Structure prediction request, 156 residues.
Amino acid sequence: MTSSPATPHTPRTPPLPPADALTVEVVDLIATVVARYHEEYEEAAARHTLTGAQARVLTLLARESLPMRKVAQQLRCEPSNITGIVDRLESRGLVERRPDPDDRRVKLAAATEEGHRTAVRLRESLNFAREPLAALSTAERTSLRDLLRRMLGEDA
Prediction:
């Protein structure tokens, strides 16, 4: 009789209950909104001769200067990708690297004045959500924002 090798015991998580029709519809609607947003974002970026990834990095850096590893964390990508994107944005005069005033060993990526202007023009050219959201009352937009934050685990 041969014995089989021991297999480590892995605790099983109980299966999730099947999604109800309303949940499926909500997920599908969210997916449609995300797809439309990405499509428009790519088109807007191209009008500014940027890739979608470059536009996302520039938009983030226009809000605050960050170390590139934090940019990568926020955009959920590899730091080496961010280095290349920042290099290309820097060559266009849209981003610059600066020493971190709190830690001179760290370099921050920051939008230049032209980078800030480009980020504003990019944001202004995104019309997809503007019209549908304008049809909602302030209370409805506030509720939507709070629900989305709650779904993402953020404080409302």
In short: Helices lie at 21-47, 52-63, 68-75, 79-91, 113-124, 130-134, 138-151. The chain has a mean pLDDT of 88.
